[in-house]
Amino acid sequence: MGIELNGEWKVTYFPFGTGIRKVLEKSFVPEGWLSAQIPEDIHVTLRRAGLLRGHTYNKEPEEERWVEECDWIYYRAFMVPPDFGGNKTELICDGLDTFCDLYLNGVWIGGGENMHRRYVFSVKDELLPGKRNVLVIHFRSPIRAVEKMEQKGIFSITTSERILARKAQMNYSWDFCGRTVTTGIWKGITLVSKSEASLSCIQKKFTGRQKRRR
User: Fold this and answer.
1) Selection from 195, 197, 167 nearest residue 182 by Cα
2) How far is it, in rounded angstroms, from Cα 162 to Cα 146?
3) In the prediction, which pLDDT does 32 show?
4) Coil, helix or strand for 2?
5) What is the 3-state secondary structure (H, E, C) of 78-91?
């Protein structure tokens, strides 16, 4: 049994490093937030809302730079049938771009640091069958998130920020495109309940940040 969590979400930005405790409160309402049609990156959302000019003649390279400097918070409320549940309940995220933390009903369920992989989170204990559920995904600025990472031995003819992020390299500009360092939910999200045994790779929960592999 599965429930797709695609379609309309709410999204807004916070300055990098701002806490989101208020967003995780049960009484919180995302009033005034933009509507995002997931899956899509934040630049698509902002262009549809008229907040970015998009691909236009004589566009200034720096005019969209503020987008990559912010944190972006996605909010989705959804209902789950009372009989939804089994031996395993998993949240499957096919594409999260890139540095993010996920919260279900105010509880941290895991994080991501690689836009190219699928993440599977066990949410059996956090999900509320038959009730309103809220999923919040906090994406940290892909530029600011790597600022304090160790750069010893790293060399780039452009900037080191692109080397430190497991992210589409063309975001930082390429010979066929300009710089658009985007973020967001770029592939679908599904909630799955399984009553029988299955083999899967679960994103482990941990109390602190995993040490980045070098």
Assistant:
1) 167
2) 9
3) 96
4) strand
5) EECCCCCCCCEEEE
| Interval 154-169: pLDDT, tens | 666 566 777 778 898 8
DSSP letter for each residue of 50-74 = TSS--S-TT--TTTTHHHHHEEEEE
Beta bridge partners of 97: 184
Element holding 139 (H helix, E strand): strand 132-139
Query: Which amino acid does the sequence have at 65?
Result: R
8 A C-beta contact, residue 169 and residue 163: no
What pLDDT is attached to residue 200?
53
Dist CA 149 CA 137 (whole Å):
22
Q: How far apart are CA 212 and CA 132, in angstroms?
A: 35
User: For residues 119 and 177, what is the distance between their CA atoms, to the nearest angstrom?
Assistant: 29
Residue type, 34: L
Provide CB contacts within 8 A for 168, sequence distance 6+.
97, 115
